[in-house]
Amino acid sequence: MTMTAVPFADAGLPAVRVQRQTPSGRIALTLALAALVALVAMPWWASTGTIRWILELCCYLAVAQMWNLLAGYAGLVSVGQQAFMGAAGYALFVLAQTYGINPFLAVFLSLLVPAVLAVPTYFLLHRLEGPYFSIGTWVVAEVFRLVSTNLPLVNSGAGMSLRVMKDYSAFERNVAMSLLCATLLLVTLGGSYWLLRSRFGLALIAMRDNPVAAASQGVQVGRLRFLIYVAAAVGCGLAGAIYFMAQLRITPGSAFDPMWANLAIFIVMVGGIGSIEGVLIGTLIFFVADRWFGEYGASYFVVLGLMTLAVALYARTGIWGAIARRWDAPWFPIGRRLIDPQQGTKGETR
Amino acid sequence: MSAVLSTHGLVARYGDFQALYGVDTELGAGECVALIGANGAGKSTFLRAVMGLLPVAREMVRLDGEPVGGTAPDRMVQKGVAIVPEGRRLFTGMSVEDNLRVAIDQAARAAGKAGARAGGKGGWTLKRVHDLFPILAEKARTPVQSLSGGQQQMVAIGRALLCQPRVLLCDEISLGLAPKVIREIYAALPEIRAAGTAVILVEQDVGLAQSASDRLYCMLEGRVTLAGKSAEISRAQIGEAYFGVGHAVA
Amino acid sequence: MQWLDALIQGVLLGGMYAQYALGMALMFGVMRIVNISHGDLVILLSLIGISLASAFGLGPLPVLVALVPLAVLIGFVLQKTVLNRVVGNDPLPSLIATFGLSIALQNLMLQIWSANSRSLPGYGLESRSIEIGGIYIGLLPVIVLAVATGLTWGLDLMLKRTRFGRALRAAAADVEAAAMTGIDPRAVYALATAAAVGILGFAAVFQALRSTVAPADGPAQLIYAFEAVIIGGMGSVWGAFIGSMVLGISQAIGFRIDPGFGVLAGHIVFLFVLATRPQGLFGRA
């Protein structure tokens, strides 16, 4: 796949080109690459404290984008992605702490657990219609929590600590965390962007707009949904493993905290569902709100809840939806525009 | 002529797709008008727009001269317009009798609300519907999904009649049925009209439409291309209007 | 004997769950909506009931008499202000809206009533029991089961025999066709939600009498109601009732095996039913 214009010609038709990148997109892509470099270089410019909150921010972004992929494109409204975060987190602790595997290797090995668990979970839950699917995902997360509470392998309800991290110096840990953050964003955000621009992207967008029509156009809706579900489980797993590695401690309550679902839904709905730009905007808003108003506890969450409600009632496309209606300057263009050299833009798919 | 139902420059669209381009029609009291045309000519869309299932401007549809365009379907029923919808749309899982009772319930509710004004003079009762289609009495307890297509169509007609309409809209009631069953169903039409109900028949079968109606409209690509007395219109005229032969196709 | 006891306790517990499940089955059946704040509404009503009882020294029955109409009103307002705007083919808006409402409600309750667990004084009702053949059966759970049975029976009869019930079933089968038969879907929806939340008024009183309630308890009640509905099979109120019994029995037997296994046993039976009989025990395939 190329980022530049692809020549497109057909017998008898005027020569048109398919344009896939826009000026705003080039700027955003440059900024994204710069951010990625800054992320990797964190140990040389940021304090350990800064790295920690940036890591948290990266986890929010990743989890929110995974939820966006599920709910915004595949039509799978999950409220139980914490199941896979906790599962990978626990897998990391068991592999590194109990079996003594290098923790930085174990982060990636632990991703097998959410991948494997997502398969039977999907096949059980996809039988449930719309809203019932959602609550089903929540039940699965609860099952994981209760199993971990009763499982001696993970020290039951008492939880586990990642003491092996003490073997590494603070600088070594910072380097690892920075690399992991960059990997996380590259996999979840970059991966989504790549997916949406690939040939699956058109199918996904068709599915988002109308699953029945997409199916009749040859999109294998069922298979695509399954793949997205497993991919999102792995993405959330990676976020979970990195998050809990930084926390150094995991308990059933923290591992399978429904808070992650709240956060993902808030970020995506307020930012704008079905777009990567929305996730970035939503995460920024949530993060700032959390820093400024987090201390107000319950009343802060009342406002958060009411905002989510208000978006669902009055502004389903969120902030990015409102922006995109006014200015046609996507940061991450996924559409294809037909350019007629004589007349300019002819038509597009978005 | 005092029209009970009329449309004036009726325009309707599905999203970006415009399906009707200014349709003018008139239905006199007690009259039976047929609406014919090829697939996709806009016949069903016309009925949906009249019934309030598609957004249309207020002035585009008039009932007894009163602008009613875009009124919600349940309010249209209360005002005396009922529809036998395309595909019958029965309440699956419910018995024949319960399907009919839903209409009786709502008509009674509307009558209670507005006095005797809203309902038609038809005075349709369960018994009269049973007299019209005796099989429905026999199958009263049967779930509608296990009926034959013709029987289901009878339930759909019975249900619409029990709404006590002054205007009955019928969307392709012969579709997919055997000729014998179609005759049986069309045999009910005189009795329905005798009750003072005006009827709009949307029909694919031109011969059937022509013989059953007083007047007919032929539609093509969202426009009326022919209107006139059914008995006076020739086959050739219909063919021309139906297929757009001789018309500049937009 | 121990297992017979577990079975009986399970059925009695199922009576409690049935009071949650009925409303959910009704709302999903008619509107294809799941109200995520379903459990939070129970807790909200419980806490209001507890506050009423302590402020005016009311017994359980007057609290019930006050709460059910309040619940009906809440349901009606919920439908008019929120759910009518999000009902439709796409499940996302209704899920997100009620999800946001759930978070707001939980935290609002936390602010008003604090995180403490509370219960409704039963004036001795909660400790009375009957002994049958060496098994002690609490009077209160028996009342709960009796009320649940009565509500299920009444709801079923209402759906089958009344004008409103027929309108509800018609709207559930084909909402557009229902509108074309003179039914105002929004009016039917509002009444359905009012009935569903009204039943939660009963659940709120009995939940607060049987055990304790705290602002964070709602999600668990939502999940139990959901499991009962799916186990029983969608589309029938008796299905939801039987599903509640199966869930209650599973939890009670699981609890006997290991106290930490009770709730998990219920989840496992739910997943097992989902794997082997996705239409539910009483659902049509």
TrEMBL record, chain A:
It is found in: Cell membrane. Its main location: membrane. This is Branched-chain amino acid transport system permease protein. It is a multi-pass membrane protein. Keywords: Cell membrane, Membrane, Transmembrane, Transmembrane helix. GO terms for molecular function: branched-chain amino acid transmembrane transporter activity. GO terms for cellular component: plasma membrane. The chain crosses the membrane at residues 27-45, 83-101, 107-125, 175-196, 226-245, 265-288, 300-323.
From TrEMBL, chain B:
Keywords: Amino-acid transport, ATP-binding, Nucleotide-binding, Transport. PROSITE patterns: ABC_TRANSPORTER_1 (PS00211), ABC_TRANSPORTER_2 (PS50893). The keyword ATP-binding applies. SUPFAM superfamilies: P-loop containing nucleoside triphosphate hydrolases (SSF52540). GO terms for molecular function: ATP binding; ATP hydrolysis activity; branched-chain amino acid transmembrane transporter activity. GO terms for biological process: L-amino acid transport. Pfam families: ABC_tran. Residues 5-246 form the ABC transporter domain. Belongs to the ABC transporter superfamily. This is Branched-chain amino acid transport system ATP-binding protein.
UniProtKB/TrEMBL annotation, chain C:
It is found in: Cell membrane. GO terms for biological process: amino acid transport. InterPro entries: ABC_transp_permease, BCAA_transport_permease. It holds the Pfam family BPD_transp_2. It is a multi-pass membrane protein. The chain crosses the membrane at residues 6-29, 41-58, 95-115, 135-159, 188-209, 221-247, 259-276. Keywords: Amino-acid transport, Cell membrane, Membrane, Transmembrane, Transmembrane helix, Transport. GO terms for molecular function: transmembrane transporter activity. The keyword Manganese does not apply. Its main location: membrane. GO terms for cellular component: plasma membrane. PANTHER family: AMINO ACID ABC TRANSPORTER PERMEASE PROTEIN (PTHR11795:SF445), BRANCHED-CHAIN AMINO ACID TRANSPORT SYSTEM PERMEASE PROTEIN LIVH (PTHR11795). Belongs to the binding-protein-dependent transport system permease family. LivHM subfamily. This is Branched-chain amino acid transport system permease protein. It comes from Prosthecomicrobium pneumaticum.
